[in-house]
Amino acid sequence: MGQETVKGMIENVIFQNAENGFTVFSLEKSEENSGSLVCVGIMPKISVGEYLKVTGSYVNHATYGVQLKIEQFEKSLPDDEQSIEKYLGSGIIKGVRERLAKKIVKKFGKNTLTILEEYPEMLAEIKGITIERAQEICAIFHEQAEQRRVIMYLQDQGISFSYANKLYKRYRGATIEIVKENPYVLAEEIDGIGFKTADSIAFKLGMPKESSFRINSGVKYLLMQATGNGHTYLPKDILINDSAELLEVDGSLISNALSELQMQRTLWQENIDGEICVYLNYYYYAESYVAKKLLELSKTVIDKSGNVESEIASIEKATGILLAENQKNAVGAALKHGVFVITGGPGTGKTTTIRTIISVLEMRDYKVELAAPTGRAAKRMSEATGKEAKTIHRMLEISFEDDSRHQIF
Predict the structure, then answer these.
(1) Cα end-to-end distance, the chain, whole Å
(2) Helix (H) or strand (E) holding 85
C-alpha cells in the first residue's frame, strides 16, 4: 500500500500516550461519503473536532486492520459553520461545550474563529459570557495556536514531537526565538537531544562553525562524554585538541572558550601536579564534596567498646573457620574507621573478613545494611554473606524528576 495525503476531522481519539505522543485516532475524511480512517503516529495533544492534513503510508495491522501510519501532519481550522460548531463543542477549549458552541456560532457564523483570534471582547455580547470569561476562552485558543506553530516549526527542524513538546513546556511562546538564537540549548537542557543533533539543526539555521554558542557547547559535550568513561575532568591540552578536531576550528578559539566558560562559572580549571585539569563546575564541586566527606568519615571512630579479639574467637568457634592475622587486623581496623577499604585478589579471604565484620557488629546490636553499585554486585554480595544486599540507589530510595536529570530521595 502506498503513501497518501488525507484531510479530515478527528472524530475519535482512541488512545494517546501523554509522555511520548503516540496516538491512535479515527479521521473523518473531508471528501463526501468517503468514510473514516484509523491513523497512528506521534502527535501533539489532539481533540475531537480538530482538522488535520496527514501524510503517511498504509499498514495492515493483524488485529485492527488497515491503518495510516503518519509521517507528516498539519493542523488546520474548520471553515464552515457546522464544522466550527463541532470543533468548539468538542471540549478542545475548557468550559466550552456543545450548547455554548452553538450559541457562539449562531451569533458569529463563519467569522467565529476570527472573533476568537482578534476580537475576544465581542464574545461578551452572548448571554452568559462575561468579559473575563471571554478573555479566558480566547487565551486558551491563542495558546493552542501558539503551541501548534512552535511544534510544527521544531518538527521542520528534525526535532521529534516528544522533544518539541518538552521544549514548548519549558519556553512557551519564546521557544522559536530561543532555538534560532542558540540551538545548542537543546543539547544542554533537553534530556535525549545530543550535541550532534543540535549541531545539525544549527547548520540548517546557518550558524557559523566559529559561533561561540557552538564552541562552548562542543567543549561541554566532550567533558560530559568523558564522565561517561569515569573521568570528572580532562587535561586542558587534550580537551583543546579534541574540541578543535570535533568542531573543525582553530585551537585558539577553544582556549578563548575555556576562559569565557570559566568566567561564566561553567568550568573550573585547576593545576594538579603541574597539569591543568578542566572540570565542569558541578563535577568539580561534587568531587570536592565527596573527598571532604570521605575524609570526615575516615576520622570517625565507629565503636571502641567490646573486645574484638574475643569476639573473633567466638565467631571462629561457631563457624569452624580460623582467620589469618591480616584478616583479624582488617576486622579490628574496620570497626575503628568510618571508611575502610578491603582489597585483595581472588581467594585472599575478603568474603570471610566481611562476614566476620558483619557478625561482630551484630553481636554489638548494630543494624547492618549492605549496598553495592550494581544489581549484579548486590546479588553476589548477598550470596557471599547470606545477608540481603541492595543497590545504593535502592537503599537511598533515589528516583528521578520528570526531566530525568535531577535525582530526588
Answers:
(1) 51
(2) helix 81-88
| C-alpha angle 364-366-371 in degrees, rounded to nearest 5 | 135
**Are the CB atoms for 219 and 254 separated by under 8 Å?**
yes
CA nearest to 156, candidates 47, 41, 74 = 74
Residues in the chain: 409
Cell of 190: 533537553
Q: Give the integer Cα–Cα distance in Å for 153 and 148.
A: 8
Task: Write down the residue that cell numbers 585483595 correspond to.
Answer: 344
- Count Cβ neighbours within 10 Å for each residue of 221-246 and write b for 16 or more, e otherwise: bbbeebeeeeebbbebeebbebbbeb
| Successive 10-residue mean pLDDT values, the chain, 409 residues | 80 83 87 80 79 89 86 78 78 79 90 84 88 86 78 75 78 88 85 85 89 94 92 96 95 95 94 95 95 90 80 92 92 88 88 92 91 92 91 87 67
Q: Answer whether 316's CB lies under 8 Å from 328's CB.
A: no
- Residues 57 and 100 sit within 8 Å (Cβ to Cβ): no
- Return the closest-CA partner of residue 255 out of 273, 269, 265: 269
Alpha-helical regions (H) of 157-194: 161-171, 175-181, 185-189
- Tell me the three state secondary structure of residue 302: coil
Report the alpha-carbon distance of residue 265 to residue 106 in Å, rounded.
Answer: 60
pTM for this predicted structure? 0.61
Whether 16 and 4 have beta carbons less than 8 Å apart is answered as no
Q: Which three cell numbers stand for residue 274?
A: 603541574
β-pair partners for 67: 59
Q: Is 385 helix (H, G, I), strand (E, B) or coil?
A: helix
Q: Is 230 left (phi over 0), alpha (psi -120 to 50) or beta?
A: left
> How many other CB atoms are found less than 10 A from the CB of residue 198?
26
Q: What does the DSSP 8-state code read for residue 60?
A: E
Q: What is d(CA 37, CA 31) in angstroms, rounded to the nearest whole number?
A: 12
CB 331 within 8 A of CB 360: yes
Considering all CA atoms of the chain, what is the largest pairwise distance in Å, rounded to the nearest integer?
Answer: 96
State whether residue 374 is helix, strand or coil.
Answer: coil
Name, in order, each residue with C-beta under 8 angstroms of 248's C-beta and a sequence gap of 6 or more: 209
